[in-house]
Amino acid sequence: MVNFLKILKFGIAAHELGHTLGFFHAQARFDRDQFINVVYANLSPQLATQFVKQSPADNFNFGVTYDYGSIMHYSDTDMSTNRVTMLAKDKSFQHTMGNNVAPSFLDVLEMNLYYKCSEHCNANGADCKNGGYRHPRNCSTCICPDGFGGFDCTRRATPVFGAPPNCGATIKANNSDFQILNGEVSSSVENGMAPRHAQCWWHIRAPMGKRIQIRVKSVSGACSDGCFYGGTEIKARDFLRVGARICCRSDVRPLGILYSNTELAIISVFSQYKKQHFLLNIKLLIH
């Protein structure tokens, strides 16, 4: 059995290592007011310094966008006595805040940019798509955003960390009124906490020039800050940062309806706690 505290400590260690390597808290970025509202009335006074905003001169982010799912981002109730201290301006990301498992794709990308890790890759390396970039230790391969895979990030990511090989699919959205999508995954550890999330992805593809409307009808599974135990993630507009995450029944209604920017939307289900299951009923409507 994997010890819960060991897993939690990895996330904490990754967060603190981020500080050592030069990262500020995500909610202290100079541009954070474009993405969150800080609820100062709910902050513990002695901890309010954790929300001091950095200056652009001190906080250069190499053009990497704000990531609610960064390992450097506090949860929405941190620094209080279980009251909300941050409100996502895009409410669909309210429960994405508080990732305490591992660095996000954008965390690793920004670290590679900061330390110029990929500069030794020459023009003959991999031609990475969908925001992927050449692996600094093997320039012929790509590091892909979550949800993408293959040698050049053009394929759907394969299931990972114990998720069954047939988990996930590529689905063509059609012109019918609605399509129902159900998805579930279980932790790779039967009784206890797995070291990583079992995870799989669905790519929803619409006809060229069309968009996708997504409404989550229900979720089931353990409810936790930052969806630590597992949950459902929807990427409808930006495939690089962590998507909108939900893992509590109370999350469903506030999430509302999501619309893709393009002909693609990505859904994933992930779990690292016991036999945790998620049942997703998602309606797709083509505009």
TrEMBL record:
Location of the active site: E16
Gene3D superfamilies: Collagenase (Catalytic Domain) (3.40.390.10), Spermadhesin, CUB domain (2.60.120.290)
Domain CUB: 167-285
Keyword Disulfide bond: yes
Cofactor annotation remark: Binds 1 zinc ion per subunit.
Ranges where the Peptidase M12A domain occurs: 1-118
Cited Pfam families: Astacin
Molecular function terms, GO-annotated: metalloendopeptidase activity; zinc ion binding
Entry keyword annotation includes Hydrolase: yes
GO biological process, one term: proteolysis
Leading EC class: hydrolase
Cofactor: Zn(2+)
Binding site for Zn(2+): H15, H19, H25
E.C. code: 3.4.24.-
Keywords per UniProt: Disulfide bond, EGF-like domain, Hydrolase, Metal-binding, Metalloprotease, Protease, Zinc
Name the UniProt record assigns to this protein: Metalloendopeptidase
Source species: Meloidogyne enterolobii (Root-knot nematode worm)
Top-level taxonomy: Eukaryota, Metazoa, Ecdysozoa, Nematoda, Chromadorea
